[in-house]
């Protein structure tokens, strides 16, 4: 039996660790037990593959495994600033140059709007889930409830990998912008090890120091982290306002004479690039347990922050194209070079300071989101349960925060930015698509209530929606074949969504806040995310598959058996509780 002591040990052991903190389940108590578990892999996989959690389990029993509760200290104001801070980092200073010069020209404004609307569709789906399931696991918990343990595990493993890469990348970039402020080359602040491979030879102690400092703040106090984030984000916005005003003083409307040099295709290709300037909001959804009034605060915080971000991005990108002809915009440092070309060389320091502030709050939001993902995964025993511990004094997941910071710092210390930037994977888009799919399942399917006929129709329509979305993305990736392919795939997507709306009865209504225009917005979210995947290079898909295979190996040899034992223990506890209640009723 899985002993409840596996969770209690989190508070009893203090700093002393043992195997029980990492593998307390029955399957790992001896080599004999583990051998029996491996022999039962097929049976256990069949049991857990499509096993779905439920709202009550995620909201109550999973939380209880952390022993202590996170402190409810956040409101909508905090969430708005966390949302802006998590999303509005250095992306606007880096991605805008590539998108404007190579693809869209001044129409980059439209590209930012299109990619912003695509991101907003995902925000709406996340918001409904976060209101209904305000738990630390974010998308992991949402997918566990609607699509099952296995899908949730694969998705969470991929998003954590992307979090580590993003955190390390931002930490290395922090050093680069700090060097700019100091009039130095970034490698002047790094330790060169000639005996190491070229891509790993410039060791970055500043990146590690910044990561550790952010980790300490995230561990000490969530409310304190929120205050710091709010102040830093407000300063960041003031710097962006300065860039806007200063840039408009050098505006030349003639630069807009050729508005979209590469036509619609150029605008859409730029949108695919710029979409990644909007990612990060999913980490805000992991703060659900710490929000005072989820039904009110989460929708205002998530949607409000995204609307502000879209507006700022569109205005700043438009200003950049007014300052310089799109063909002269620098790909790597567009704003700094634009000010330099306009005779305002001093402004590059303001730009660097703005980027530095932005990256600091992105690092904070990144580690907070990472830790809360890992905390909830630890609660399910798919990761070591010691990660589920919540510190009694601070009300924060200290163990998970420290472990994820160590991972970020190690990668940031050794790995060059060029390597990290090429590790961009499809994980974010993959999970955004799954969350939208899970929302449709949640609204149209309830076990024991949805008829077999509606169930089969739901599966069929969802398969067509996904299939037509993949077909559109594949046609886009194949090259400029005109619009003939879309004349087939888009109507198929439209008819499948319409069929879902007309012929399948909704099985559940949201209790507090729901996505409007169902099923159109979640269906459009799936189509948009899959379409953007078509613009990602082949090596990213190879990395995604390779990492997923590694996750699968860990799942088959460890996570499957740990989560199976934990689920059986939860089931036994629930049965015993029901039996006790029945006996108490009879006695009365």
TrEMBL record:
Keyword Secreted: no
Gene3D superfamilies listed in its UniProt record: Amino acid/polyamine transporter I (1.20.1740.10)
Database matches in InterPro entries: AA/rel_permease1 (IPR002293), CAT_C (IPR029485)
Domain Cationic amino acid transporter C-terminal: 513-563
Main localization of the protein described in the UniProt heading: membrane
Positions of transmembrane segments: 74-95, 107-129, 150-171, 228-247, 267-288, 300-326, 346-369, 398-417, 423-446, 458-477, 483-500, 512-532, 544-564
Record key words, sorted: Membrane, Transmembrane, Transmembrane helix
Keyword Membrane included in the entry's annotation: yes
Family per record: Belongs to the amino acid-polyamine-organocation (APC) superfamily. Cationic amino acid transporter (CAT) (TC 2.A.3.3) family.
Name recorded for this polypeptide: Cationic amino acid transporter C-terminal domain-containing protein
Naturally occurring in which organism (per UniProt): Xanthoceras sorbifolium
């Amino acid at each position: 039996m899985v002993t409840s002591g596996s969770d209690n040990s989190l508070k009893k052991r203090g700093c002393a660790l043992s195997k029980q903190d990492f593998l307390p389940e029955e399957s790992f108590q001896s080599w004999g037990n583990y051998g029996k578990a491996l022999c039962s892999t097929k049976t256990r996989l069949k049991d857990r593959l499509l096993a779905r959690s439920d709202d009550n389990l995620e909201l109550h029993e999973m939380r209880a495994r952390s022993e202590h509760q996170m402190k409810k200290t956040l409101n909508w104001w905090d969430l708005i600033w966390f949302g802006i801070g998590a999303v509005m980092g250095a992306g606007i200073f880096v991605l805008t140059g590539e998108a404007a010069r190579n693809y869209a020209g001044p129409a980059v404004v439209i590209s930012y709007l299109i990619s912003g609307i695509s991101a907003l569709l995902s925000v709406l789906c996340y918001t409904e889930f976060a209101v209904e399931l305000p738990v630390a696991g974010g998308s992991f918990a949402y997918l566990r409830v609607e699509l099952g343990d296995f899908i949730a595990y694969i998705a969470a493993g991929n998003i954590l990998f992307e979090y580590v890469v993003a955190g390390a990348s931002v930490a290395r970039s922090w050093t680069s912008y700090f060097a700019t402020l100091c009039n130095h080359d970034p490698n002047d602040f790094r330790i060169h090890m000639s005996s190491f491979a070229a891509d790993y030879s410039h060791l970055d102690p500043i990146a590690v120091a910044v990561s550790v400092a952010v980790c300490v703040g995230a561990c000490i106090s969530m409310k304190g982290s929120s205050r710091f984030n709010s102040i830093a984000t407000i300063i960041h916005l003031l710097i962006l306002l300065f860039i806007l005003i200063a840039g408009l003083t050098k505006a030349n409307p003639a630069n807009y004479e050729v508005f979209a040099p590469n036509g619609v295709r150029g605008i859409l290709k730029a949108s695919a690039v710029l979409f990644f300037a909007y990612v990060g909001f999913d980490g805000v959804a992991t703060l659900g347990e710490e929000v005072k009034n989820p039904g009110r605060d989460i929708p205002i915080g998530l949607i409000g922050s995204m609307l502000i971000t879209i507006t700022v991005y569109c205005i700043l990108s438009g200003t950049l194209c007014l300052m310089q002809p799109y063909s002269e915009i620098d790909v790597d440092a567009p704003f700094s070079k634009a000010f330099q070309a306009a005779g305002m060389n001093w402004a590059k320091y303001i730009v660097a300071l703005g980027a530095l502030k932005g990256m600091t709050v992105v690092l904070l939001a990144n580690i907070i989101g990472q830790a809360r993902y890992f905390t909830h995964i630890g609660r399910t025993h798919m990761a070591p349960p010691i990660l589920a511990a919540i510190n009694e004094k601070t009300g924060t997941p200290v163990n998970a925060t420290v472990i994820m910071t160590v991972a970020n710092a190690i990668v940031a210390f050794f790995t060059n930015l060029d390597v990290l930037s090429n590790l961009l994977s499809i994980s974010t888009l993959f999970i955004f698509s799954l969350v939208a799919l899970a929302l449709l399942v949640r609204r149209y399917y309830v076990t024991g209530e949805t008829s077999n006929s509606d169930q089969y129709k739901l599966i069929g329509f969802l398969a067509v929606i996904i299939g037509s979305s993949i077909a559109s993305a594949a046609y886009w990736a194949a090259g400029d074949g005109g619009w003939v392919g879309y004349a087939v795939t888009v109507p198929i997507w439209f008819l499948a969504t319409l069929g879902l709306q007309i012929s399948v009865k909704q099985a559940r209504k949201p209790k507090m806040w729901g996505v409007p225009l169902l099923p159109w917005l979640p269906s459009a979210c799936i189509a948009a995310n899959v379409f953007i995947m078509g613009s990602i290079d082949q090596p990213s898909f190879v990395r995604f598959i390779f990492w997923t295979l590694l996750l699968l190996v860990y799942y088959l040899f460890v996570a499957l058996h740990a989560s199976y034992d934990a689920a059986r223990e939860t089931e036994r506890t629930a049965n015993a509780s029901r039996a006790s209640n029945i006996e108490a009723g009879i006695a009365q």
